[in-house]
Structures are given as C-alpha cells and as structure tokens.
Amino acid sequence: MLDKQLLQTTLDEINHLKSQIFSVNTAVDINHLHYKSLLNLQHYKVLRSEDRKGLQEKLFSLALSSLGRSFAHIAWSIETLSEQIESSLSAHIENNSPEKFSPELTINDALALNISNAKLLFGGKATTQLSRQKTAIMVTLPSNAAENNGVLIRDLAKVGVNAFRINTAHDDASTWRAMAKIIQEINLSYDDDSKIKIFVDLAGPKIRTGKIRRVNTPIVIGSNKVLKSVHITQSKDMDTHAEYFNDITREKLPAQIVLNKRIYKKLEVDSVLKIVDTNSKKAFITITEIYDDFIKGSIDKKVYLDDSAKIYRKRKPGKILNIQKQVELIRLKKEDLLIIGEEDEEGYAALYDENRNLIEHAYIGCSFQGIAEHVDIGEKIFIDDGKIGLEVMKIEGRLITCRVTLAKENGTLIKEEKGINFPDSHIVTEALTQNDKENLLNVLDFIDHISLSFCQSAQDVKDLKNLLREHGREDIGIVTKIETKRAVSNMPEILEELLDWQKSAVMIARGDLAIEVGFENLAYVQESLLDICDAAHIPVIWATQVLENQMKNNLPSRAEITDAAMSGRAECVMLNKGAFAINTINVLKHILHDMHSISKKSRQLLSKETLW
Question: 276 - beta bridge partners?
Fold first, then answer.
C-alpha cells in the first residue's frame, strides 16, 4: 500500500529540486561544443550543492529510482520521478502540478555520449548496448620497450592492450620515437576501431629530492651463503661496483671488478684470484668463462672493497681500480631533524662527533626553487610516496627545518629524485613547464593523446589547449592528471574547460593524490571524482599501483584484486611496467570481464546468478 503522505512530501522535494535544476539551463550556451554534457555538469553541481540524504531515503522507501544512479542524466531522471509520483497521486492532485520541462538529455543520449567519448580516447567498436561496460587497458612502457624489434610491445599488443603510455619524465625523444614506431607498425594490421592508442605523459612540475653526495665507502661483493657471479674487466671507463637490480629489465646484474691489464691478460678459465678486503678477510674468485670484452667468474665469500683492498694472482699483488663511490646513506628515524633547502647543494647525512654528539643535521635539496616561501610552521611534508613524513619546525631564509613524524622503526633512507608532497601548502605553479613544451614538440607527430601532469586549474588546461592550437593539433586528446588537493577543489572548472575540447579524459593519479588528500580519504575522493566525471560524460583513467604485486612478483594481494575490480567502473585502467606484464593483463581482463557481467559503473545489472 502506497503511503500518500510520503508520496506528497517526496513530490514536493522533487519539484523543488527540479526548479533548482532547470534554473541553470539559460546560463549554458546552446552552441557550446559539448552543450548537453556541460548542461548536465551544471545540473550535477546543483544536485550536490545540498544534503539530499532525506530525499534519497524517501525514494528508497517508495521503491523508486535512486538519484545516485542519475549522475549522467540528472534532469531526465528528476522529471521522470516527478511524473511517476504525480501519476500515483493523480486522484489527489487538483491542478497543482508544476510546470513541465523537456530535458535536453535522455538516458539513451547520456549512454551514447559516454560510449562515443570513450571510443574517441581508447578506440573500440561502436555500440549502444545498455548492459555492458567496457574498460580499456593501458600499459606504461619501460625504457627498453623498443629493444629486440619491440618484442615486448608486440607481446603486449597480442594480449589485448588498448593503449600504451610513454612517460617523458624518463628517457629521450629518440627512445620515445622508437617505441612509437613499433606501435605504428603493429597498427598497420589493425582496422581503425582497433588501433592501439599512444598516450604521452608530460612530466609536469613535480617537486623532487635533489642529488645526494657520493662518498668513499666500501662496496659489498659476494655472499657467505652461495657462490655469486662477478664480471671482471680492464676498461678504464668502467667502475668496480656491487651487484644491483635493474628497474627497467627487472634483472639482477652481477658485481663488476676492474683490474689492470697486467693481471687481466693472464687470466684463464679455472684461474683463481684471491681478494683481501678492507677488513683483511679473504675470498676467492674462480674464472669460469672468457669473452671478448669481459671475464666471468664466481666469488665464494662476501667482501668489502675500498682503496685498501688487495687482489692476488699466484701470490702476485694487483690493484682493484675505479671503485665506485657510493651515495651517502641518509637514514631518518622518528624525531630526527631534516633540513630541506635548494637543489644546488647535494644532500648529506647528519654529522656526529666521536661521542655521537650531533654536529650538523641531515640535509636534502628540493627541485622547487624558493620552496621555503610557500610553507608555514606546522605544515606536513611527505617524501617518496609517503614513506617519510615530516612536520615543519622552523624556516630560516631558504632553509626549512623539519621533524620526522613518520619512518620505519629502524629508519628510512632518503633517495634521489623522489617526489616531495606539500599537502598543507598552497604552491601555485604552472602545470606546463618549459621542458614539457619542448618535449611536446618532439612527440606531436605520433601521439594520439597528451597527459597533463599536476593539472590544478582550468588555466592549466587552457595553456595546453593554446599550445596544441598553435601547432594545428586540435585532434589530440587531452588527459588531465588529478593528483593534488587544489585539482580536486577545482574539478568542476577543469571539467568545464575540458568540455571545450573535442577529446578529453581525466586520470585519477592515486599515488600523489593519496598523499595530498590523506590515505584514509582516498576512497571517498576517488568515488567523488568518478561521479563528477560521469556527470560530464568524460572518460576516467584509473591509475597507480593497479595489481602492482602481480606485476612485479606474479602474485597479487587480496586487496589488489578488490581494487582491480573497482577499477572496472572507469573507462580505462593503467598498469605500470613490470616483469609479469603479460600475466597481469590476463588477470585484469578476467576480473574486468566478471565485474562487467554484474555491474555497469555503480549500477547493478542483476544478471542471472550462477554461483548457487
């Protein structure tokens, strides 16, 4: 039995909302490029300008459609609700119906706009299928992607990648062009709807830690548990260095020792070299293979090498050359003090006297010149994706003294070129740097879409649009990366500016964004961003650490699976580079297929349940 009093109060609220919604119609230019989407965005702003929880509860009690599912077609949904309730109350209403409106945007119009806008960015077949969401997959290319005739790119294309991301924060124009050439070759065999899109990221004005000084500290070679491979060379241009992990190829590369020619030329397979390290400990290297430019051997113990170390062949002493200087370790613990200053001075660790009395605090440079002018005492600072947390204690000239508030129990190391976030500070800087402008000119002839890092305002979008117009490339899509508090606050204006461009999208860059808004607030913020982009019919790219463990270790965490499932609400998911990219894509495709069978964005489809 319908509650007529509840119906009437609900209708009153719906009609009040309707009058608010339609009052903004005259403020939108009917000749605007994306008129209907811009109008619906204005309707969304009105809808969310007041607390509507009471109205939502009334609609739920009446088993009527929720306004929470109406973001892409707000006026149509409100007008429909009004008509439905009026119909139920028709016998009790005497000529008090409000003015009828004819919404500009129907549900089918909104669906068509969402599909066509996503297709412009990510390709795909045109469809008006109501019950199926499509989420494209984008993969970030590593620096070596074009090597071996681009076998990595070709393999990724075979498993269904829809877009490749080239990051201009790394490498150079020749490397980017080599990657693009491979993609263009692959696209020759694809029809227009299936071609793989090329997205290029502009680095933007990301604030990073500066260089850290190099010091003469012993390097570690070998292991006390297993035999370790070591390369030996005589080249004066090479360094003696420890084993290291290559982030690009995902390989562990062996340690290297540089010897003088006198010893090097006499080495043969099964020759044995004795090392006496800086601590007078001994280890033996057995030669296993000889190549044109290096010799391979295995070392049986761990040794520490500096200029005092000795090497012997048949008791004849030699010298280890070019021992690589090491980056000084700056290890910070909670309550330590750190000084942040200009990048022109190299970072260094805290200095103590022989009695462990502090002489000088640790120091790290910052890539943003004059940063001290933009911060205040008490504000928070985070380094390296939030691994180190700081609080500003004192500002003197160009120096910021901070107290460490977040670090591992045994201390956390500061590294070079790591991001610094100032979530409490009002730092106004243009998103499009001079370096970005130069890089853009180097990629204009092969890109499909350009991503604007650290976009914080509508003006940032305007600047990029003007640059593209200057070079006659209004066909290139613009992606704004949302990664700061200020960008979130300015989201309506940013979307309005994007709607004045033919092709556009929003990337939710959750790495920096989580630090800026607080990790505990990220879920709420990313949900809000999905909603407002839905209202503007602008596609969303879900980015940062999607299936990161799966990508690196071939084993996803349970939380990652849930996160990947949530990503199916976006029009595209971006994966970072990693050793297990092929497997990760297959896992993601499986997750997305399952999720798209039961939901479309935030709407349950109620397909037949087959689990029981």
Answer: 282, 310
Instruction: Report the distance separating Cα 172 and Cα 176, nearest Å.
Output: 6
Lowest mean per-residue pLDDT among 100-109, 122-131, 162-171? 122-131
CB contact at 8 A, 54 and 83: no
Per the structure block, which two tokens stand in for 134?
A: 């499509």
Domains and CATH numbers, the chain: 4-105 (no CATH), 134-205+429-603 (3.20.20.60), 218-324 (2.40.33), 331-421 (2.40.33.10)
pLDDT digits (tens, 9 = 90+) for 498-524: 999 999 999 999 999 999 999 999 999
Interacting residues of 330 by C-beta distance below 8 A, sequence separation 6+: 212, 347, 348, 349, 350, 362, 364, 413, 414
State both tokens at 511: 């790495």
- Give me 236's structure tokens: 């004066």
Three-state SS across 397-439?
CCEEEEEEEECCCCCEECCCCCEEECCCCCCCCCCCCHHHHHH
Measure the CA angle with vertex 213, ends 207 and 215; round to 5°: 155
Burial bucket for residue 84 (CB in 10 Å: 0-12, 13-18, 19+): middle
pTM for this structure? 0.85
Q: Within 10 A of 346 (CB to CB), how many other CB atoms are there?
A: 16
Q: CA 87 to CA 4: how far, in whole Å?
A: 12
Instruction: Classify burial at 347, counting beta carbons within 10 Å of its beta carbon; exposed 0-12, middle 13-18, buried 19 or more.
Output: buried
Of the pLDDT bands very low, low, confident and very high (cuts 50, 70, 90), residue 472 is very high
- Rounded Cα distance between 450 and 171, Å, is 17
Structure tokens at 434: 């001079």
Q: Which residues pair with 542 in a beta bridge?
A: 508, 573
Under DSSP, is residue 325 helix (H, G, I), strand (E, B) or coil?
coil
Return the closest-CA partner of residue 373 out of 389, 395, 391, 394: 395
> 3-state class of 514 per DSSP?
helix
Per 3-state DSSP, the chain is made up of helix, strand and coil in percentages (nearest 5) of 35, 25, 40
For residues 237 and 509, give the distance between their C-alpha atoms in angstroms, rounded to a whole number: 41
User: What 3-state class would DSSP assign to 426?
Assistant: coil
Q: Is 434 exposed, middle or buried (0-12, 13-18, 19+ CB in 10 A)?
A: exposed
